[in-house]
């Protein structure tokens, strides 16, 4: 009985990996016109060029999402981010730190109470 449960878990995890890989292949092909296998086998300058292209594509997706553009697709955004993480060199931190600048929030103007002098 334990073997069946282990096989079931292995099957589910394999199917999830295959589904994630299919999403990434489609997103990279549609957004950048690149093949995932070629991207994973690249190195050196080709890899840096590819990462720069992916960064620009991700930035465009982020901007579409912020502006609530009709063509924004969250699944494509996630798949591109996953590809970016797979292609980027491993970092010493456990968490991936985004290179995007933090958005600055404007402070609300405080108004003085009526009759008060500034």
Question: What does it look like?
Answer:
There is one protein chain. The chain is mostly helical and 118 residues long. It has one domain. The chain is built from four helices and no strands. Helix 1 crosses helix 4 and helix 3 runs antiparallel to helix 4. The N and C termini lie far apart (79 Å). 10% of the residues are buried.
Distinctive features:
62% helix, 4 helices, 118 residues, mainly alpha
User: How big a fraction of the residues is strand?
Assistant: under 5%
Span between N and C termini?
79 Å
N to C succession of SSEs: HHHH
Structural class: mainly alpha
Report the principal-axis shape: extended
The percent range for helix content is 55-70%
- How many individual helices? 4
User: In total, how many domains does the architecture comprise?
Assistant: 1
Question: For the CA atoms, what is the radius of gyration?
Answer: 22 Å
Poorly predicted ranges: none
State mean pLDDT (0 to 100 scale): 80
Total E-strand runs: 0
| Main pleated sheet | none
